[in-house]
Write a structure and sequence with these properties.
binds nicotinamide-adenine-dinucleotide; binds 2'deoxy-thymidine-5'-diphospho-alpha-D-glucose; 7-stranded parallel β-sheet; single chain; Rossmann fold; about 350 residues; 12 helices
Length: about 350
C-alpha cells in the first residue's frame, strides 16, 4: 500500500484529483486532510466516502500537532498538497488568511514530512500544487515557462510564490524529494461560484447582472479541471524529482469574449432567444492590481511526460454549464449563508 496524504481534496481541483486517485489506485491508502472552509465541501466527494482506500480527516494544515499526529499514524510516503486559500479578490480584502494557510500551512506540512522521513528519502515525495500567477502578468506577447522569474502581484500569488520557494528550499537544503506544478485557470464542476465562470453561470441562470472587471480585456488561459487532474497524476508518477512543470490549456480568452461565449451556451441550454443573456453583462470597478494576461508554455510536460489537454474549450464549457444546471442543490447549498454576505460586500450591482 502506498500511503498518500492529499490536502484540500474537498475543494474544486482537489476533489477531481482525489476521485482520479481513489478510483484508479486501489492499492493506495489515501488520506484527505481538509479544513472544510467555505470553499471545501464534502458533497464534492460524496461518491468516494465508502471507498476502502480512502479516509477523510477534517482539520487545518496549520495545526502542527494534528499534522504531526497524522504523519505518525499513517506513515505517509507521499504528499500531494492542494489546500490553499485560492481566490484573488478575497486575498485583497483579507491577506492574513492567505499567509497562514498558503505559507505557514505549507511549512507545517514540510516539517512534518521532514521529521517522519528523517533523511530516509527513498520512495518519498512532497508534490506541491501551484499556480501560474506566481510569474506575474504578461504583456501582449510571450508565455510563462518554468524558468520565468517569479513576480507575483497579489497577496494570493505572493503567498503561493512564497510557498513554492519554501518547497524548493527544503529540496535544496534538506534534499527532500519534491515536485512542483504551476497551472493556469481551471474550470469545471465543483468550482465555488466566486470564480468567474461559475459566478457568471449562476447569475445568468438567475437573470442577474454579470460583473466584468474593468473593460473585460484581461486574458486567462483556461484548462478543463479533469485535464489538470490527469496532469497531476502523470507528474506524481512520472515527473522527475526536483522539477517544476507548467500546465496550461493553450486556450487564451479575454474575459469579455469568454463571457459572450458562455452567454451563447446558456441561451441555448435555457431555451432563451440568442443574445438574451449578453444583456446581463455589466462592467464594474476593476480588481486592484489586476494582472493583464496569463498564458502557459506547456511544452516541457508535453515533451517529457506526454501530457496534453484532451477537452476542447467548447466541449468543456458545455460540460461545465450542464454540471451547474444539473446540480442545483449543490449550487443552492453553497450560495446560501456566507456567499450572500461576500457578494453584497464585493459587488455593488
Ligand atoms: P479551492 O478554494 O476550491 O479549494 C481549497 C481547499 O482547501 C478547500 O477544500 C478548503 O477547505 C481547503 N483548505 C483551505 N484552507 C485550509 C487549511 N488551512 N487546512 C486544510 N484545508 C484547507 O481551491 P482550488 O481552486 O481547488 O485550488 C486548489 C489548489 O490549486 C490551490 O493550491 C491553488 O492555488 C491551486 N491552483 C488553482 C487553480 C484554479 O484555477 N482554481 C489554478 C492553478 C493552481
Ligand atoms: O491562473 C490560475 C489562477 O486562476 C488560480 O491560481 C486561482 O486560484 C484562481 O482563482 C484563478 O485566478 P483568477 O483571478 O484568474 O480567477 P477568477 O475566476 O477570479 O477571475 C478570472 C478573470 O475574470 C480575472 O481576470 C478577473 C475576472 N473577473 C473575475 C470575477 C470573479 C471578472 O471580470 N469578474 C468577476 O466577477
Amino acid at each position: 500500500m502506498k500511503k498518500i496524504l492529499i490536502t484540500g481534496a474537498a475543494g474544486f481541483i482537489g476533489s477531481h484529483v482525489l476521485r482520479l486517485f481513489v478510483n484508479n489506485y486501489a492499492n493506495y491508502d489515501i488520506v484527505n486532510l481538509d479544513k472544510l472552509t467555505y470553499a471545501g465541501n464534502l458533497e464534492n466527494i460524496n461518491d468516494l466516502k465508502n471507498m476502502s482506500n480512502y479516509t477523510f480527516v477534517k482539520g487545518d494544515i496549520c495545526d502542527k500537532d494534528l499534522v504531526e499526529k497524522l504523519f505518525k499514524k499513517h506513515q505517509f510516503e507521499s504528499v500531494i498538497h492542494l489546500a490553499a486559500e485560492s481566490h484573488v479578490d478575497r486575498s485583497i480584502s483579507n491577506p492574513m488568511e492567505f499567509i497562514n494557510t498558503n505559507i505557514i500551512g505549507t511549512v507545517v506540512l514540510l516539517n512534518a514530512a521532514k521529521a517522519l522521513w528523517n533523511n530516509n528519502y527513498a520512495g518519498k515525495l512532497f508534490y506541491h500544487i501551484s499556480t501560474d500567477e506566481v510569474y506575474g502578468s504578461l504583456g501582449e506577447e510571450g508565455l510563462f515557462t518554468e524558468t520565468t522569474s517569479y513576480d507575483p502581484k497579489s497577496p494570493y500569488s505572493a503567498a503561493k510564490a512564497s510557498s513554492d520557494h519554501l518547497v524548493r528550499a527544503y529540496h535544496n537544503t534538506y534534499k527532500m524529494p519534491i515536485k512542483i506544478s504551476n497551472c493556469s485557470n481551471n474550470y469545471g464542476g465543483n468550482q465555488f461560484p466566486e470564480k468567474l465562470i461559475p459566478l457568471a453561470i449562476n447569475n445568468i441562470k438567475n437573470n442577474k447582472k454579470i460583473p466584468i472587471y474593468g473593460k473585460g480585456e484581461n486574458i486567462r488561459d483556461w484548462l478543463y479541471v479533469k485535464d489538470h487532474a490527469k496532469a497531476i497524476d502523470v507528474i506524481f508518477h512520472k515527473g522527475n524529482i526536483g522539477e517544476t512543470y507548467n500546465i496550461g490549456g493553450k486556450n487564451e480568452w479575454t474575459n469579455i469574449d469568454l463571457i459572450k461565449k458562455l452567454c451563447e451556451i446558456m441561451d441555448t441550454k435555457l431555451k432563451r432567444p440568442l443574445k438574451t443573456s449578453e444583456k446581463l453583462i455589466t462592467f464594474v470597478k476593476d480588481r486592484a492590481g489586476h494582472d493583464l494576461r496569463y498564458a502557459i508554455d506547456s511544452s516541457k510536460i508535453e515533451k517529457e511526460l506526454n501530457w496534453f489537454p484532451t477537452v476542447t474549450f467548447e466541449e468543456g464549457l458545455e460540460k461545465t454549464v450542464d454540471w451547474y444546471l444539473e446540480n442545483t442543490d449543490w449550487l443552492e447549498n453553497v450560495i446560501s449563508g456566507e456567499y450572500q454576505e461576500y457578494y453584497q460586500k464585493n459587488y455593488e450591482i
